[in-house]
């Protein structure tokens, strides 16, 4: 059912124009969608989406171009294409996880704990980056690489006393900058 041309540019602001446009073109849009989609519920949703898109795009309508039905079919084509892309991405995502074991409550709890621990580690590494080079070097050699203070001093070609002082300063600076770690995370004094 197509009637006389409408003032399409007024659709977003004039309910009477929108109603008339909708009544004139609803069946054509519904047929257009039904030829491309086999689910009646999806077809109904997409038909509604087309008219929502019409309201949004009405100000860009150019009367001299192809005519309102061609313009409307262009919008409908974009709505259907967007839905096909969405479904394709959804199927691909589902395919990626197909056959994967779903997470149970214990898995989720373990994952949450791991994320929490890693968040603490990220904070620690960021704070370590703010330390002076000499202090950070001793702390990394002792706390991360497992060297003794004497071995770290040799590696850095400083005295063991200097290494102990730098390690003490680094630990103190980190304790001052970071919130207390939980009981399950490594502490700065273990090194």
Automatic annotation (TrEMBL):
Residues of the RNA polymerase sigma factor 70 region 4 type domain: 122-174
Domain RNA polymerase sigma-70 region: 22-87
Keyword Transcription regulation on entry: yes
Protein origin, superkingdom: Bacteria
Keywords for this protein: DNA-binding, Sigma factor, Transcription, Transcription regulation
Pfam families documented for this protein: Sigma70_r2 (PF04542), Sigma70_r4_2 (PF08281)
InterPro entries linked: RNA_pol_sigma-70-like, RNA_pol_sigma-70_dom, RNA_pol_sigma70_r2, RNA_pol_sigma70_r4_t2, RNA_pol_sigma_r2, RNA_pol_sigma_r3/r4-like, WH-like_DNA-bd_sf
Family named by the database record: Belongs to the sigma-70 factor family. ECF subfamily.
Protein name according to UniProt: RNA polymerase sigma factor
């Amino acid at each position: 059912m197509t009637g006389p041309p409408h003032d399409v540019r007024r659709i977003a602001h004039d309910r009477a124009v929108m109603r008339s446009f909708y009544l004139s073109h609803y069946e054509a849009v519904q047929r257009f969608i039904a030829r491309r989609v086999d689910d009646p519920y999806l077809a109904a949703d997409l038909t509604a989406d087309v008219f929502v898109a019409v309201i949004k795009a009405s100000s860009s309508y150019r009367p001299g171009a192809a005519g309102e039905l061609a313009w409307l079919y262009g919008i409908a084509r974009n709505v259907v294409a967007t839905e096909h892309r969405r479904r394709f991405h959804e199927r691909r995502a589902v395919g990626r996880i197909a056959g994967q074991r779903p997470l149970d409550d214990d898995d989720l709890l373990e994952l949450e704990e791991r994320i929490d621990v890693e968040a603490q580690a990220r904070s620690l590494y960021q704070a370590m980056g703010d330390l002076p080079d000499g202090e950070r070097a001793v702390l990394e050699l002792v706390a991360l690489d497992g060297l003794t203070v004497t071995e770290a001093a040799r590696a850095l070609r400083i005295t063991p006393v200097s290494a102990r002082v730098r390690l003490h300063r680094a630990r103190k600076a980190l304790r001052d900058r970071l919130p207390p770690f939980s009981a399950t995370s490594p502490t700065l004094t273990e090194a």
